Amino acid sequence: MNVTAKRWLWLILYFVILLAPLIVILIGPRPGPRELWRELSVALGFTGLALVGVQFIPTARLQAFSNVFSMDEVYYFHQRASVIGFTLVLAHPLILFLFNPETVRLLNPFTAPARAVFGLVALLAMIALVITSIYRKELGIRYEIWRLVHATLSVVMILGAMLHMLGVDYYLSLPWQRVLWIGLTVMWLGLIINTHFIRALRKKRQPYKLVEVRQENEATWTLALEPDGHAGLRFMPGQFAWITIERPPFSLRQHPFSFASNAEQPERLEFTIGEAGDFTSSVGQLAVGEVVYIDGPHGTFSIDRYDGPGYVFIAGGIGAPPVMSMLRTMAARGSRKPAWLFYGNPTPEMITYAEELIELEQTLDLQIVHVLEDPPDNWHGETGFINGDILDRHLPKNRNDLICFICGPVPMIDAMLQALDEIRVPLHNVHTEQYEMV
Q: Dihedral angle at the C-alpha atoms of 61, 67, 69, 73, nearest 10 degrees?
C-alpha cells in the first residue's frame, strides 16, 4: 500500500472516531425533549472530548503513523486541534451557566453531586494540560517533568470525563452507547500506556552501547552507538528517534534527535547533539560504555520518501544532523544527483562537520553555501541570514523539480518557505523539520 493510501486510511479512521459521539446523539434514542441550548452544550462537550481524545493517536509514536505523516504536520495539527477541542469542552459548562445560572453551584465540590465533581476535575485537568503545554518554557517546567505532568493530567482528564458522562447517564443509558464511550476511553488510555510503558519494554530488549563521544565544535557533540546483542535497526536517512541515555527505558529523560549517520550502516548509529541548557549541557561528559535505548525510527523527512532529480538542503545550526544523514547516505550509495546545501551559522567555528562537508563536496555533485551571521574579516562567502537572494544566486534557473529539505528553528523555517516561494520553488516540493518539537 502506497503512502497516499495509508494517509487516507488514517484520516478516515480519525474522523470516524471523532464523529462517533455525534452519531450517538443523532441515531440513539432520545430520553425526552430538552432545550436547544442544552442539546448544543452536550454536542459540543461530546465533540470536544472526542477531538481531545484522538490527539493521543498522532503522539503515540506509532511507526505506522509517524512514518506516513511528517512530524511537523503531526505537531502542528496536534497543538491546534487540542486547543479547539479544549474550547469546545469549555463551551459545554459555559452554555449551561449562561442559560441556567443556578448550575454555577455545581462548581462547589463540597455540595455538588459526584457526576459534577468528576466533570469539574476533568475540566481543571484539561485547563492545566493546555496551559503547561503552551507555556512550558515561560513557566520554567523542565521537559522531563512536563512529560510526567502531561501524561498524568491526560489520564485524570479522560477518567474524570468518562465518570462524569456515566453519572449523567443521558446519552449513555443503552449498553451499546456505554460500550462505545468505554471503548474510546480504553483506547485513549491504551495509547498512553503504550507510549510510556509498552514501548519501553520493547526497547529494553534491544539496548545500545555508547562507543564514541566525539566533539564537533565548542557546544556540539556526536554520540556513536552500536547494538548490544542484536542486529540494530534500519532507518531512512533524515529520520529521528527518541533516545534514553544512562537511564532505564522507562525514564522520563527521553528526547528526540535526528539520525546523523549513514542509513546504509545500521550497525552504527550516530546522533549529533547541541548543548541547549537542559540535560544536553552535559552530553560531552558521557562515558563510553553507557547503555542507550532507542525508540524509532520516526518521521518522513527523508530523500527516501521524497525522491527527485536533485535536492536542496537548508539547515540552521544544529539543524544539520538529518541533512548530514542524507548526504552521507547519498555518498555511500554513489549518488550523482545534484545537491545544494545552504548552511547558516554565527561563525566559522560553529560550523558542524566542517571538514567532512569539504570531503562530501568533492565526493558528491554537491555545492555548499555557508552563510555566516558574524563572519571574520577574511571571509569571502555569504553573510547575514539565508534569504531569497542567496538562494536565487546559487540555485539553477530550472528549479521546478528540485526537492527541498529545511531543518531549523521555526522562524527560520517560516522565512525559508517565504523565500522559496518568492524564487518560484513549488512549495509542494518543500519539506520541513523543526529541530525542537516540544
A: 60
